[in-house]
Amino acid sequence: MSSEPRLGRRLGLRREILILLPVALLLLAVLSSFTLFSYRDALSLLQAERQQEAARLARGVAEGIAAAGGQGVPAPEDLRRLAPLARGIALLDAQGRPLAATGDFPPAGLPASLAGTAIREPVAAGPNEELGDVVAGFAPLVGGRSVRVDLPAGPLAGLLRGLRILSAVVLSIDGALVLLVILFIRHLLAPYDTLLERAKQVGEPGAGEGEIEFLLATFERAVTELSRAEREPEDDIAAVERTLLASLESGLLLLDREGAVLAVNAVGAGLLGLAPPAPGTPLAAALASLPDLAGLLAGAVRQGGGMQRQECTLRVGEAERTLGLTVHPLRRDDGAIRGYLVLFADLTEPRKRAEEARLSESLARLGELAGGVAHELRNSLATLRGYLTLIERQPGEESAADYLGEIRTEADHLQRVLEDFLAFARPGTARFQEISLVPLLQRAAADPALDGFSVRLQAPEPGPHLQGDPQLLDRAIRNLLHNAVEAEREAGRSGPVDVRVRVEEQPDGIEIAIEDRGPGIRPEIRERLFHPFVTGRPGGVGLGLALAQRVVVLHGGRISLEDRDGGGARAVLFFPSEEGGTA
């Protein structure tokens, strides 16, 4: 056998396509373009012949008119005798206006291309958009006059119109073919390349074996393996073992339908601190040193179902290790269980790092809380110390009573700071009961601490109910109303503050909206609204929103603070129906 055929086979289908398909497409584009241009040239020759015929006929008519005298205007029947086969004949003056005409002749004598020019020799034009389906010939006469003779050219005009459409279609297709060759030929071959790469992952082609022969051989081997798997159901378990044991970086334990251990990968054996057991070893014997894990897996086998994200703490040697487990049943097409695939990973270090991160975050928040409380206490103590110093210097003056009033006000502020801090740090255990929401809101709206601000309450009758702790909810609502009143006061208004209560149907739940017309949410605190001791109001403590969020979350709800249309802010509390339904 010569080396040339073997070389051709080694080139493979992909390289042959990369060579032959672009060449074929380019040849097709060249051939179609050549055919189009040849057809266009043939029509141009046919049009030129028809124009020459019209020009000769016009010259003949002009010579006949000249022989008959040439100065007068011939009768239409005389013109018709000079060219009986013409569609129309006309005698034109120097400006191109018809002096005499016969047949189907347009009012305009000269086309726009010849208007304003003197005709000194026979010429012809058409068919085109101006002349329509005729070829017009022109010949000069004495005195600046001329003769026009129209010949019918309907089929030729139709061919020329079709040529324009055909040219656009053919050139567009040729351009698309060239673009396909340039841009998309490799994309067309991508599925073939993927199939070839997958086949090479299974095995390498033999000596002298082309790509097509290699793909066919790989396909036949796959069909053979599938057929054998149909005849021997346990072979698919072996296929899972061969495929996964060496490739997975997490622990893998393969069990049969009875729970006996078929295989364990090296990573799994290291995590469990076991030597790989012999295939078919009962689960209790293979995991004798790990009874908790053995019991967990045995229960999953007895139930015949899977197990998702189960955690198990084991003692492997001297170390305690936390494993995350997932059990997947392996089923046949008919639903029968063939075995179980157990995947597990060591969660000890991730759990440790997560716990350290939580501790670090807790310490940071504790530091923030302590710093906030210390700041408030330091400011208040400095104020108290200042007033006491003034009283010591002037004990007998009447201003001492004013100083004592200021000391009392500052002491009240300290008491509020401590109460809010304790309520936030230890909100207490919620005592749930059915609450009628409207009376609770009415009591909160009548709080004397609102300093005379009126509250407008909008709620459906008889009003919604929810399961919750009335004291905690009352405290949260009062804090939000107090914030709304302070925002109104900061904006220089005297009320009312709008409070709306409505029941949402999709999703089901209760929504409470408290709106104010104050300055709105300051951008610098928007991302930290519910953090303790974050406030945008001078003199504010910064615990009202944080405490309200704790109470709402304790009831399974959520709270948000957003800008109000037309200015101001809106606090929205939502309690879903899973935690508290409507009555």
What does this structure look like?
The chain has 583 residues and is of the alpha+beta class. Helices cover 50% and strands 20% of the residues. The strands form 4 sheets. The protein has a 5-stranded antiparallel beta sheet. Strands 7-6-10-9-8 form a 5-stranded antiparallel beta sheet, sandwiched between helices. Strands 12-14-15-17-16 form a 5-stranded mixed beta sheet. The radius of gyration is 49 Å and the shape is flat. The two termini are 92 Å apart.
**Beginning-to-end CA distance, first to last residue:** 92 Å
Measured as a percent range, the helix fraction is: 40-55%
Largest pleated sheet: 5 strands, antiparallel
In what order do the strands lie side by side in the largest sheet?
2-1-5-4-3
What portion of residues belong to β-strands? 15-25%
Query: Which regions contain 5 or more consecutive residues with pLDDT less than 50?
Result: 1-11, 579-583
By DSSP, the count of extended strands is: 17
Mean pLDDT: 76
Q: Provide the structure class.
A: alpha+beta
Shape: flat
DSSP summary: helix tally:
14
Radius of gyration computed on alpha carbons: 49 Å
